[in-house]
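Dear support,

We are seeing what looks like truncated structure output for some complexes. This example has two components. We would appreciate it if you could run it in full and send us the complete token output so we can diff it against ours.
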Amino acid sequence: MTQDIGQIWVYLSASPLLGLTITLLAYQGAFWIYQRTGHNPLANPVLIAVAALVLFLSLTSTSYETYFAGAQFVHFLLGPATVALAIPLYTQFKRVRSMLLPVLAGLVAGSLTAIVSAVLTARLFGASSATQLSLAPKSVTTPIAMGIAERIGGIPSLTAVLVIVTGILGAVGARFVFDTMKIRDPAIRGFAIGVASHGIGTARAFQVSEQSGAFAALAMGMNGALTALLVPWLVTII
Amino acid sequence: MLGALTQLLIFQLAGEVVARGLALPVPGPVLGMLFLFLALLLRGGPPAPLQTTSQNLLQHLSLLFVPAGTGIMVHLHRVANEWLPLALSLLISTLATLVVTALVMKLCSRAPAGEAS
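Here is the complete output from our reference environment:
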């Protein structure tokens, strides 16, 4: 009978079912903890879920490729979810239109800061060239950032990870930063978090308020487009 | 729900086709978002099923980043070698971006709008 468990594991570890199920389980567990802490940004659900999954996969010696064969079904939904961001954007359109100047100015300043400061800090502290290039698009959403990294000679899969960490840092740190700066306007808070930390910041902003979320979604979309234009040109001059 | 999901996929597909067809640097889903936004402007708002499905999808947006984030296990070696520049770069750059964006927006807002919170 004990041999059966081994055989069941052989089957499960080769099928996409396991990767998909543990992704959902890890996330729901992480979200439960996040709720229990009263939505404390330090208990970020992505951070907890990723840590739990890495631990589980390492302990069971499961490769990332095997895991991703199942998890890709969740990953795929990033596309339609990005499209769906048009709806909160539409709902908040009046407010966005009345803030056109601050939105555009904030976007350009934030986008440049994100790219230049990431590359220069990494260079200053001795990161390799491939690592520097992988960092350049780190503030935009995963699929865009990976595309940019590939074009400029970075490592796309490393960029994906750096993007996630950036998202978590922004989601965790934003409240402290804005409270210190005494920025209370939910539109500004949302937009800045969307520029700095894309979809993970946007997810966090939606948990705070619909208006913050809509501005974060707007920022994420605009910064994705602007960064895709700026990075290939900026990395040749800095 | 099924119809709404199909609509989202159609807009994503349209975005991909245009982005690749015209070799634009903007990714397909972002263009799809723009197309859907324009459609909503023309139509005067989303149909109820699309509204509900999108809300459900966006409610757990964080979940969708978990598979890519787990990819860190592939790069543990590089991360271990270059952890200091990586950590400082991500931390300084993310905080600087938050501060600069918020500050520029505040300075450009004519009236201190939205103080009521």
